[in-house]
Amino acid sequence: MDDPEQVRARLEETGYLVDDGLAIACFLALRLHRPLFCEGDAGVGKTALATALAEALGAPLIRLQCHEGIDASQALYDWDFPRQLLHLRAAEAAGVRDADRLESELYDRRFLIARPLLRALQTQPAVLLVDEIDRADDEFEAFLLELLSEYSVTIPELGTLRAEVPPVVVLTSNRTREVHDALKRRCLYHWFDHPSFARELAIVRSRLPKVSARLAEQVTALVQALRAADLVKPPGVAETIDWAQALDLLGANELDADLAVATLGSVLKYREDTDRARGLDLAAVLAAREA
Fold first, then answer.
1. Is-cis flag, bond preceding 125, omega within 30?
2. Which of 83, 163, 251, 278 lies 20 to 30 angstroms, CA to CA, from 7?
3. How far apart are CA 144 and CA 129, in angstroms?
4. What percent of the chain has pLDDT over 70?
């Protein structure tokens, strides 16, 4: 892709709408082979960006879901111990007694289990999604920084494996904790904010073209109003799409306050938030949209 406008066009062909800042960030990430660090609330489209990039590039999406306690063996590689043991027993049964030969055979590539990070280095092209890096610990961040600096890894038994073509890397963070500056400095950065009404409506219409225009507009208006309330977890764009899809499946072409309350479970995930939403004048929000 030769310029940010072409990046925008290719992403929009997949149904993912981007603004100027994100189109430029994606273009630079592709050209400079720099990871793109995406930060923002849950449900604003960070993970969906990696999916859209993979589709736009015609590349497989390789996802590493971070969690507390994740380590290199879960993210990078491990050895297939059961297969190694079977091979050792078969070799012993065949009368092989050469220890050096057995050891070299045991640590052959056929017994190597490539986890997401190693698969991304070995796959050209590839889009690597490191999802919710803020859930991992400091040690894993340091390990990831080293790997992304050189796009290579050293396996003691096999030597250094280096990516012929670096994968496109998207890291996401919901900001449950601050990610260290060292990792952020290695990346291009983009903050994902909740979209304006017009952009969110365009996203819903792009993702759900069969939903009636009136219903999409009403759902978007209500979600924007819910975000302005003091909620534990304001809904993201993903929840807006879920709500519109749920209402469409129920056969609704438009929304009223009673139906909105009955289907709040599609957009709000905390009891405190649903209680607060029921206390809002949803009918007035819908009426204001019609004015």
1. yes
2. 163
3. 12
4. 98
Strand partners, 62: 128
Quick one: tokens of 96?
A: 């092989």
pTM of the model: 0.86
Distance CA 258, CA 264 (A): 10
Apex 181 CA angle, 180 and 186, nearest 5: 110
Indicate the pairing of strand 168-173 with strand 188-192.
unpaired
Is residue 94 over pLDDT 80?
no
Residue with tokens 């589709």: 55
Q: Which two tokens stand for residue 61?
A: 């999406």
Q: For residue 99, what pLDDT band results from cuts at 50, 70 and 90?
A: low
Radius of gyration, CA atoms only, the chain: 24
CA dist list (Å): 192 to 81, 205, 215: 42, 20, 25
DSSP assignment string, 40-86: ESTTSSHHHHHHHHHHHHT--EEEEE--TT--HHHHTEEE-HHHHHH
pLDDT at 261 over 90: yes
DSSP bridge partners of 39: 173, 191
- pLDDT, residue 291, reads 59
Neighbours of 218 (CB within 10 A): 25
Secondary structure class of 192 (helix, strand, coil): strand
Please give the backbone phi and psi of residue 154, each rounded to the nearest 5 degrees, phi first. -105, 120
Beta-carbon contacts of 160 under 8 Å, excluding residues fewer than 6 positions away, are: 152, 153, 154
Round to whole Å and give the CA distance between 12 and 256: 31
